[in-house]
Amino acid sequence: MGDQDLERYFSQSEKQLEIERVLKCFKLDPFSILELPYGKPEPKQIKTQYRKKSLMIHPDKVKHDRAQEAFSMLKKAESELHDDTRIKFLLSVIEEAKVEALRDNGYKVKTQVVATTTDALKQKEQQEKEEQEQQKKEEENDNNKEGNDDESIGSKRKKTVIESATVVDAGQYPFLKTPSGQEAVKAKVKEILIEMELRRRRQLKKEMEAEGAEARKAEEEVQTRKRQREEQKQWEATRDQRVNSWRDFQKKGGKKVKKVKRSGL
């Protein structure tokens, strides 16, 4: 179905409702915005959902005061799910949310560590990076060529990068597949992301306060040096005046001090 046919398939009321749904979603949860299940999504899934929903809420496709805001949320969610680093972080949050949701509902949770290897493209990039670093070392250590050759061989053998993650085996916990279980996980994901965002903001605030204190201290030092320079400049500017005043004083024989006669008691 083409984009135009798909767009006509949705009524204006459905588009309005979809905008309201997106706006109610938690902004830090791209899965809920795109209505994707919690798990590593396939690029095709992301593309399909984004295409479908963008045709529903794009500001050019529907009349709504907050259509642009909803579309921005959708675009940001799609971008995050294409970011490997962000996906890795979100998946770790989801697994933690599953554990907490299960424990809150009386389950004893067992987790397992799953090791995975990076894809071929990542392996190639990693290998190229290592080879570039090795080449740089060889250029810096021309006198030790033999040792560098050995290191180069070892570097080229490092083709597979293994990553590990702690996960919950959903098959052992049917609760996670129920509507109430899914809602519990979703609520925990939101709770964890909020706490982490607040923690990030507190840390950022501390760093900004520290930077502000350093900036104020630096500014105070600048002002102190400036004041000292001004005082020194003023002192030098009035030097001749002070010297002349002293000379006049000396010529007059110094200032005479009047003796005060004390009367007896």
TrEMBL record:
<protein>
    <recommendedName>
        <fullName>J domain-containing protein</fullName>
    </recommendedName>
</protein>
<feature type="region of interest" description="Disordered">
    <location>
        <begin position="206"/>
        <end position="265"/>
    </location>
</feature>
<feature type="compositionally biased region" description="Basic and acidic residues">
    <location>
        <begin position="206"/>
        <end position="242"/>
    </location>
</feature>
<feature type="domain" description="J">
    <location>
        <begin position="29"/>
        <end position="86"/>
    </location>
</feature>
<dbReference type="InterPro" id="IPR036869">
    <property type="entry name" value="J_dom_sf"/>
</dbReference>
<dbReference type="InterPro" id="IPR001623">
    <property type="entry name" value="DnaJ_domain"/>
</dbReference>
<feature type="compositionally biased region" description="Basic residues">
    <location>
        <begin position="252"/>
        <end position="265"/>
    </location>
</feature>
<feature type="compositionally biased region" description="Basic and acidic residues">
    <location>
        <begin position="122"/>
        <end position="147"/>
    </location>
</feature>
<dbReference type="Pfam" id="PF00226">
    <property type="entry name" value="DnaJ"/>
</dbReference>
<feature type="region of interest" description="Disordered">
    <location>
        <begin position="122"/>
        <end position="159"/>
    </location>
</feature>
